[in-house]
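Target protein
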Amino acid sequence: MNGQNTLRHAVTCAGIGLHSGNKVSLSLKPALPDSGIRFRRADLGGSEIPASVTHLAGIRYATGLEADAASVETVEHLLATLVSMGVDNVVIELNHPEVPIMDGSAAPFVYLVQEAGIKRQATARRFLKITRPISLSRGDKQMSLYPSDHFKITYSISFDHPLLRHQSRTIRVTEESFVDEIAPARTFGFLKEVEMLRRQGLALGGSLDNAIVLSEAGVLNNSLRFEDEFVRHKILDAIGDLSLIGYPVIGHLVAHRGGHGLHTAFAAKVVEDVDAWEIVESPVGAPADAPVGLPAKPVAN
């Protein structure tokens, strides 16, 4: 079966908001077919915010969404987990406007989805298949999507730091590769920026327990999980930000020195460039690895 997916049952966790420093309770709940991924603010009477580029809010070192008077921030790690593990429809309920940072990676969210279990739904899955290249540049930063038979990412980063002057990685994104090779990669930042961020009211919940912190000489944390953990985390962020298109992507994403601002602007450009893609669906009952084929409805605005 290759229909849409939701969760088998609800699961709950608690953690700290990276930027707010406040304790957050988060629940993932099953949802109906074609309802998509939606954030629900329990502290605002159940106001909902669709995970869509049409609801982008300000980007302040993390990706934020808003709808009417409700908002939610730091959504990228959780969204990357849901789309990579094939969850199409889910309600994410919070009692605070920030998704908890957990350990700075997506690994805790992977565990949460595995605990909930996946439930198949009798509605075809839809994918956004790239049919011609799309590109966006901002100075020396660039992102492009090229036609491909599957979702693949090539990402490169360059920083003026001895540990990460240049890192590059290419990976075909599947549930297995995401869980093993991308999800454990933690967010990172520079010690010299911490005080600046805190003066702006950001990174108030940041610590060595939920981020890799780099001094001028090296890493303040004991060790890295991967030699190239930094570029792997950028891939994680890109997957989460690109999920705001509203459909799983079939294409090859190539990014150089991207960040949340470029990721989300590129996601919006993809939605706008309607002649560069088609929506295809995999019929219910097809094997999980069956090729997609039939055109379906376009992305809703």
